[in-house]
Amino acid sequence: MGDTGEDDGHPSERIRHELESLWKSIDFGHIQAVTHDTETRVFFESYLFEDAHIPALSVDVVAKAADSAEAVDDKTVVVDMMSGNSIEIQIAPPYLVKSVKERLEAKLGIPAFLQRIVAEIELEDGDNVSTHLGPEDGSTHLTMIRKDPPCITTEEFLKTIVFCVQNWETTLPECYTWYRFDTYREIPTTKQELFEWAERFKDMKHEPFTVETCLQSLDLWLETDDYKGHPEVFAQHISRLQSFLEEHCYSPSWIQVYDEPYGHDDDLEMVMFLAGRLRAAPETLMVGAVRLNCWI
């Protein structure tokens, strides 16, 4: 479930508090100056999801007996590690890089999506690679480099915020507010109903967190008023935020819910999220919810 922030001594919780402190230090004056019937209000909350719906960074190692059923046409592949160790595996035709990754996952417990396989002239790090690994006789030498986890997917993000908490109203207030103004209804009684609503946003803008992607989203808000661009000091603050996220998270994301500021009744809103898998606790997803609001 989402962490409520009670265990302040936990490393993950300390990182979350540092994120909130960093956010509060950013001067949003030019954003707040965007005025319609009222000036803009900037809301921010952070959450920890310790059982996030994200792929594990390790898997159970399959018993060594799994290699005993070698077929006549299996190919021997020697894979060198960056540690200096090597491992010998057998793969079946058509000798795909995908098969190498699957065998290494079974023998080493390193998920395929974290493996980068290097041959003499090419680097293959997809699961659906169709290139053969070499001649059909003799052994082939490859190198495996363990890479950082990629950005979470939008589906993983949505499943995490929906299924990992019991009550949005008390645990994820900004998500609760998002649902309420988007639907003008009470939160559904079942998680599946809530997820069906969340899936409407499966194609929302989702990119790596950078100064550019963050400022581009905020540009949309500035453009509703007398757009003057972002002060240089503000870009520097966002750069500091990017550095913090990259230090503490694997491949942090920036998620923009609506294509443009969302007008409803007499309000104008924007909803955005930053999210990243914590390096200190790789099964935990840290999320920051950002909302801009003013009356129109």
Order of helices and strands: EHHEEEHEEEHHHHEHHEEEE
What value does the Rg take, in angstroms? 23 Å
Helix content: 25-40%
Average residue-wise pLDDT:
88
Assembly state (oligomeric): single chain
CA(first)-CA(last) distance: 36 Å
Low-confidence stretches: 1-6, 125-130
Outline type? elongated
Strand content: 25-35%
- Tell me the structural class: alpha+beta
Number of DSSP strands? 12
Brief summary of the model shown:
It comes from Durusdinium trenchii. InterPro entries: Ubiquitin-like_dom (IPR000626), Ubiquitin-like_domsf (IPR029071). With 296 residues, the chain is an alpha+beta fold.
Q: What is the fold's blueprint, element by element?
A:
Elements: E1 2-3, H1 11-24, H2 29-32, E2 41-49, E3 75-81, E4 86-91, H3 97-108, E5 115-118, E6 123-124, E7 140-146, H4 154-163, H5 168-171, H6 173-183, H7 191-198, E8 205-208, H8 211-222, H9 232-248, E9 249-256, E10 262-264, E11 267-278, E12 285-295
Parallel strand pairs: 3-7
Antiparallel strand pairs: 1-2, 2-12, 3-4, 5-6, 5-7, 8-9, 9-11, 10-11, 11-12
Domain Ubiquitin-like: 75-150
Protein name: Ubiquitin-like domain-containing protein
InterPro entries: Ubiquitin-like_dom, Ubiquitin-like_domsf
